[in-house]
Automatic annotation (TrEMBL):
It is an enzyme of class 4 (lyase). Belongs to the NAD(P)-dependent epimerase/dehydratase family. dTDP-glucose dehydratase subfamily. The keyword Oxidoreductase does not apply. SUPFAM superfamilies: NAD(P)-binding Rossmann-fold domains. Residues 8-310 form the NAD(P)-binding domain. Its EC number is 4.2.1.46. The keyword Lyase applies. Its cofactor is NAD(+). GO terms for biological process: nucleotide-sugar metabolic process. It catalyses: dTDP-alpha-D-glucose = dTDP-4-dehydro-6-deoxy-alpha-D-glucose + H2O. It holds the Pfam family GDP_Man_Dehyd. It comes from Weissella bombi. Keywords: Lyase, NAD. This is dTDP-glucose 4,6-dehydratase.
Amino acid sequence: MAKYNKILVTGGAGFIGTNFVRYVIKNNPDVQIVVLDKLTYAGNADNLKDLPEDRVQLVVGDINDADLVDQLVQKTQAVVHFAAESHNDRALHDPRVFMQTNLMGTFTLIEAARKYHVRFHHVSTDEVYGDLPLRPTTPDLDKFTTSSQYKPSSPYSATKAGADLLVRAWVRSFGLQATISNTSNNYGPYQHIEKFIPRQITNIMSGIRPKLYGNGQNVRDWIHVLDHVAGIWAILERGEIGETYLLGANEELDNLTVLQMILQNMGLDSQDFDFVADRPGHDLRYAIDATKAQNDLNWQPQYTDFAAGLQQTIQWYQAHQSWWQADKTAVEANYAKDKQ
Ligand code: NAD
Ligand code: DAU
């Protein structure tokens, strides 16, 4: 039996939210989920359409709609909060909606959760800690831990850091029954094609040369999305109120290496890509120390072979062209405006 069997999932039609809903429904026959999702450019109702209607309900709406949030939160036992504006490149051009959704939207949700004494889990990012130097580093700068300083460097990560701090303050001041997870870069099925890995896969499939920012040396710490959602479920089931958990899979790779793995996997030459202008303020390296989550939650990443996970991801985009093809022209036109 699951600890909570009525769960409200915000952003459940986006990349990680979709994977979470599908994972929970598959593994927990006693759980019912209501998804609250605005269906922005990043949300897709079709991601959930094959799930049983008596267990998954999609409510199309905004987490800033306090009346709607109030109605939904009072009928649930737990809220898992994924909804956000999530893309750094967009935040650099239009930060306002990031303030509205990531800060005000989180505020609206935690107000309702405290009113109805509902368990709250806030899904956040390792980017709240800023970036780390490229290796070799001193031990204190080697990986992010739960005691790393908040030092966000981008408009997106600043809003996520602000949201984390709101949740922490609501725990301390109002006794909100909340936990937080900060996770590194996810990859896997259902990721929007504006993001690095699916952008390059779908570029190659569309006859467009992949694009690498700067010199390609920036490092990301990749975790398969199914390991991330299993970690969130473990926090809901076994996490301690007021605690923060860092979820990562020890898979630090520089962007050039990841791109060349994609090129090789798809039968192209390792030089078949273009270097383009760097992202302003581009964070150098992220790296997660997930020891606490592993020890306290009995959670371990299962997808530890990145090459195999990447190959499955490529195959997913190849098998689901209708899922992404209609968006491709607009996504690339958007990037072209910024000469990326
Ligand atoms: P995504 O952009 O793919 O999905 C976001 C979802 O939220 C979409 O379905 C969108 O329609 C919905 N949404 C946006 N604004 C909304 C609003 N105002 N009201 C209701 N719904 C709204 O994002 P993702 O990559 O799935 O990320 C989910 C969460 O995980 C975010 O909070 C993000 O910060 C965090 N996170 C992401 C990663 C990653 O690598 N993608 C890593 C760590 C943490
Ligand atoms: O670390 C967790 C974060 O990971 C999440 O909080 C964010 O929501 C998620 O988008 C992701 O942020 P990044 O900015 O790291 O992801 P993105 O996929 O945009 O870029 C990954 C790396 O690839 C980054 O160093 C920039 C680079 N890049 C990206 C794109 C889109 C390229 O070189 N070329 C590209 O075309």
